Amino acid sequence: MGSPETALALTLSARQASDFELLSNGGFAPLEGFMGAADWRSVCERMRLESGEIWSIPITLATDLEASAGDVVELSAPNGKRLGRLEVSEVFDRDVDTEAELVYRTTDDEHPGVAAIRREGTRCLAGPIEAVALPDHEKAFARRYLTPEESRKAFADRGWKRIVAFQTRNPIHRAHEYLTKAALEVSDGLFLHPLIGETKEGDIPADVRMRCYEILMERYYHPERVILGVNPAKMHYAGPREAVLHAIIRRNYGCTHFIVGRDHAGVGDYYGTYDAQRIFDDIDIGELGIEPLFFEHTFWCQDCEGMASDKTCPHPQESHLFLSGTKVREMLSRGETPPHEFTREEVAAILMDAYGKESATDGR
Amino acid sequence: MGSPETALALTLSARQASDFELLSNGGFAPLEGFMGAADWRSVCERMRLESGEIWSIPITLATDLEASAGDVVELSAPNGKRLGRLEVSEVFDRDVDTEAELVYRTTDDEHPGVAAIRREGTRCLAGPIEAVALPDHEKAFARRYLTPEESRKAFADRGWKRIVAFQTRNPIHRAHEYLTKAALEVSDGLFLHPLIGETKEGDIPADVRMRCYEILMERYYHPERVILGVNPAKMHYAGPREAVLHAIIRRNYGCTHFIVGRDHAGVGDYYGTYDAQRIFDDIDIGELGIEPLFFEHTFWCQDCEGMASDKTCPHPQESHLFLSGTKVREMLSRGETPPHEFTREEVAAILMDAYGKESATDGR
User: Fold this and answer.
1) pLDDT reading at B4 higher than 80
2) Which residue in the set A185, A304, A340 is minimally distant from B311, CB to CB?
3) Domains of chain A, start order
4) Which of A68, A124, A264, B359 could be stapled to A243 by a disulfide with Cβ–Cβ 3.0 to 4.6 Å?
5) pLDDT tens for each residue of A317-355
6) What's the CA gap between A176 and A261, in Å, rounded?
7) What is the DSSP letter of A234?
8) How far is B229 from chain A (nearest CA, A)?
9) Which pLDDT value is given to residue B359?
10) Nearest in space to A304 (alpha carbons), one of B340, B309, B211, B350
C-alpha cells in the first residue's frame, strides 16, 4: 500500500474479472492465482496442472502491462472497483495457436473462444492473487450469489449427500427441466447453477434468463430440494474441455454429480454431439471428485405422454415435439407462445417480453 | 451314482427350488450351497457371512429328512425333475424366532415371510450343492430367462457400463415406468428383472405380470436400452434386509445400480416407508458392489403436466392423481379402465382380462 512495488495497476476485462472471482472465492480450487508457463503448457498438453491435478482450460492473465517478476499489480474491476492484487511471479508468452489447437480443438477465428484468446494476446502475467473484494453483480444475481463455502454449507444444512449440479447458459425449457428432475430423482438435491459471466453475442442475456429461472423456482421446482445459485464464470465454448472445467467448478461448490448433456459448452459444429461426454471416459472419476451424469436428446413425446429421451422413448420422431432454436426465437419475436410441452407458459411470457423489447430496440 | 451314499432323496418345495436355482446359476454368489449354523447366525446377527461378506437373509434348507454330515442327498424339483445333489456337511437347528426377530424385525405369524420360515421348521441340512439341471419354467418365463453369466454378456455386448436394475413383483404402472426411465436417463441400460418365484396370496400372478411387462417392452421401452429378464427368487417380504439381498442378486447379474423405492419388499405396516433405503446408510457401497438409487412416491401431476415425485413436484396433493391399490383392483374387477395417467391402457386391458377371469372363477 503506497510502497513503490504497488505502483502498477491493471483494470481487468470482464472475462478476467470472472477468473479473478473464481480464483478468489474457491470456485477454481486448487488454483490460487493466474497460471505460469509450466501450468499453461501442462494443462494444454495433458489436461493436468504441473502438480498433476486434473485441469482442463488455462486460467491466464494476458495483458500488455509492463511488469516483471517481483512486481505487485493492483487489480480493479471493469467498473473501477478495487479487487485486490497480483504478486507477479513470472511473465511469459503463451502460444495462442497451441492453446487453440489443444484446448479448443480448432484454430478457427470464428470460434468465439479462440477469438477471445486471440484478442487477449500472448503476454501473460502469472502469480498468486490476494482479494480484497469481489466484482459487483446486479441485484438479480447478487441475491442468488453463493460462494463455494456457502453452497457447501447450504447442502450440509439440508442433509444432502448426493447433490447434482446443472450448468446452463440458456433459459430452462421443459427439456432441461426434465433432465434436471430426472437427475434429482436419484439425488438428494439439485443445484441449478447458471453461468452469468460473459457469453457470446446472440446468447440470451443473463438477466433475462434469471427471470426465467426464478419463475421456475417459484412454480415448478420443489423449494426444499432445489437451490438456485449463480456461477460467475465466463463461457469459453470449449466443448469437452469446458465440460470438465464446469464439473471441477461444481465439485468445488460441493456437488457430487454433474449433468452433461448433448454438445455441452459447444458452439457451431466444432464438437461432436457427445464429445463432451466421451472426454470423461479417460478421466478417473474418483480423482476428479465429481461424477458426470450423461443425458441424450430430450423432448415431449405424444405417445409416451410425457418428457422422454432417445434412451427412454421407442416412438418415431413424428411423435416428438421438436422446435429448432431459430423457430422458437421467431415465434417469441412475433409474440407467439411456443407449445406448453416445449416451454412453461411463464417462461415463454418472459422471453416474449424480452424479445419484444429487443425487436423494438432494433427499430422494428 | 448308485453308491450307498446317494440313497437319500429330497423333493424340494417351490421355495427351496428357487434357492437351489440361484445357488446354481450364480445369482447367490458367493454362496455355493445351503448355509450352516455359523453362517446362519452371522447373517442374522451382523448381516454378513462368517467369511465377512455382506449377506442379509439366511439361505437354508429346512427339512425333516434324516441325514448326517457326509451323506449325499439327491435333490429334485416339485415336479419331480432331478436337479442335483447336496453334500451334507452339517445338520443343525436354527432358532426361527431369532431369525424372525433379527431378519424380519418381527415374530408376528401374520407376516408372510415369518409364517413361511415357521412352516419350514428348524432342522436344516447344510452343504455345497452340485447342479445337473435347473427347475423348469413356463414358456413365458423361459424365453426371458438369463443366467447372471448371460445377462453380463448381454450388457457387455451392448457396451453398457452403467446398468440399473429394477426389481418388481407387481405390474408396471406409470409410476414404476417413470422411475425406471428416470434411472435409465442417467444410465446406459435398464435391466427389468421381475421376480417370478413364490409370492404371497393376493399378489398378481407372475404370468399375468409377464404379459404386462411384454407389452411395455413392445410399446413403451426402447429395445436397444432395456433388457427384460426374470429373477427366479421367491419373496421373503423382509423389507430392508430383502432390499439388500435384491441388490446383491442384481450385482451378481452384472448391474451397477439398483432401484430402491418406497417400502421396498415390504408388506403391511411392518417396515417404515424408507427403512429399506436407510439400511444402505450403514453399508459400504464399494464393498456391496452395487449402488442403490433411492426413489420417493411418484405420480402424475396435472400442474407439472407429467410424472413427478415428492422430490420434484412442488404442487399440492389435489394436483396429483392418486389411486389406492384397492381402488384400482375394484375398477379392474368391474371392467373399468383406470386413467391413462395411472397405467398404460394396454396394461389395463391385460389386468382387466385377468381380474375378470378371476372374478368368474370366484363364481361371480
Assistant:
1) no
2) A185
3) 4-131 (3.10.400.10), 140-362 (3.40.50.620)
4) A264
5) 999 998 888 888 889 889 899 999 999 999 999 999 998
6) 9
7) P
8) 18
9) 55
10) B340
Q: Which residues of A touch B294 (CB under 8 A)?
A: 186
Asked if B194 contacts B214 with a C-beta cutoff of 8 angstroms, the reply is: no
What the block records as the C-alpha cell of B19 is 434357492
CA distance B170 to chain A (A): 21
What would the mean pLDDT of A247-254 be, rounded to a whole number?
98
Looking at the predicted complex, does its ipTM rise above 0.90?
A: yes
Please name the helix (run of DSSP H) or strand (run of DSSP E) that holds residue B240, with its range, or none.
Answer: helix B240-252
A75 with A12: CB under 8 angstroms? yes
Percent over 90 (pLDDT), chain A: 90
Cα distance between residue A115 and residue A264, in whole Å: 19
Interface test with B, best of A158, A184, A185 (most B CBs within 10 A): A185
- The residue of chain A with its CA nearest to that of B294 is A186
pTM of the model: 0.93
Q: Are the beta carbons of A313 and B186 separated by less than 8 Å? A: no
CB-CB neighbours of A31 under 10 Å: 21
User: Rounded CA gap, A330 and A353, in Å?
Assistant: 13
> Chain B contacts of A311, Cβ < 8 Å?
184-185, 222, 225
Q: Quick one: cell of B100?
A: 424372525
- Are B184 and A305 inside 8 Å of each other by CB? no
Q: What is the mean pLDDT of chain A?
A: 95
Output phi, psi for A57, to 5 deg. Answer: -135, 130
- Helix B345-361 to helix B206-219 angle (10° resolution) is 160
Q: A172 touching B, CB under 8 A?
A: no
Contact A91, A127 (CB under 8 A): no
B184/A219 CB distance under 8 A: no
Where does chain A have alpha helices with state H?
A: 14-25, 37-46, 96-99, 112-120, 139-142, 148-157, 174-185, 206-219, 240-252, 275-278, 285-288, 325-333, 345-361
Instruction: Look at B185 and A304 and tell me if their CB atoms are within 8 Å.
Output: no
| Residues of B designated as active site | 169-170
Q: What is the mean pLDDT of residues B265-285?
A: 96
* B 264-323 residues inside an 8 A Cβ radius of A: 293-295, 304-314
Measured between CA atoms, how close is A315 to chain B, in angstroms? 8
Query: Is residue A1 pLDDT above 60, yes or no?
Result: no
pLDDT at B147 > cutoff 60: yes
Subunit contact A304:B220, Cβ cutoff 8 A: yes
Chain B residues touching residue A310 (CB < 8 angstroms): 222
pLDDT band at A358 (very low <50, low <70, confident <90, very high): low
Residue A203 has a pLDDT of 86
Q: Which of A148-152, A302-306, B137-141 has the lowest mean pLDDT?
A: B137-141
